[in-house]
Amino acid sequence: MIVNKKLFLLKSLIKKIFIIFSLILVFLMLPVSCKKNSGNLKGTISISGAWALYPLAVKWVEEFKYIYPEIRIDISAGGAGKGMTDTISGIVDIGMISRDIFDEEIKKGAYPIRVAKDAVIPTLNENNPYIDKLLDRGLKKDEFKNIWINGKIKFWEELINTSNKNKINVYTRSDACGAASTWAKYMGYNQEDLLGIGVYGDPGLAEAVSKDIFGVGFNNINYAYDVSTKKNVSGIKIIPIDINENGKIDSDEDFYSNRDKLIKAIIEDKFPSPPARILYFVTKDKPDNEILKIFLKWILSEGQKYVNESGYINVSDKILKEELKKITD
Hints:
The protein has helices at residues 2-29, 54-67, 80-88, 103-107, 131-137, 141-148, 157-160, 178-186, 202-210, 221-224, 259-267, 290-299, 317-328; strands at residues 43-49, 71-77, 94-97, 110-125, 169-173, 197-199, 215-220, 236-238, 276-284. It is α/β, with parallel strands linked by helices. It is elongated and about 70 Å long.
């Protein structure tokens, strides 16, 4: 009986060892992509540039590092102009750019890759005494131009035909950036043509308007809407654009109450472009660094599932295929 019991225990032990060994062998034979750490790739990627792309880029970096924890990615925001300068001069690997790429930048080696879309929107203080009338009528393109470009409209009352005189405090960006460039382009001008008090960065401009009852400014979508509630951030409201210029905001122009409505309007081309625009990652010349290529290919494939949930708009499948080809060919 004792011998039989020992034999039984020995057979059970051998069986367990065989099962464990088999499981280890199966795991080792799994494709690299099925494991959390896809290979032992190590390296560093540096990114700087547009505030507009910064929240989405941070999300991409977080998700990418789950797969490639040994790849270090340093990222900072400072405006599209800084991102482009840093990239062309070789200070960083990727520039986040939220405006059109200039011909002279292409000649210097800028290699643009389209990664997402968003928009720039005009803002005012939520406690503006004329807020209800302004939200009902919106502003026409020429009225925006008369505020930001030629300064013909100086008082809020000129927009609603009343006799008081409360000065419009105009704000713009002090840094070379895609938001200001895009907002100026909507009116047919360049960033340097914009009037107003210069404020650094998207968060700074939103804060300046939120603290000035007679202030007016502009922001990228993700700095005008709260990430959690998807409503306007505290202190500011979006100025509706009177697209058909009939002096009022019609139902098909009224899509600013939450972020999802505005994104839907951009997707359906109900919101003008500009100020809707393409967002870019830019490298110095065609990327040949393997780590950098893996990151960019991931963004244009798996990374696209994080675009909409982060408050941005996906580019078309056609564009994604074209951009992937630019990296792989």
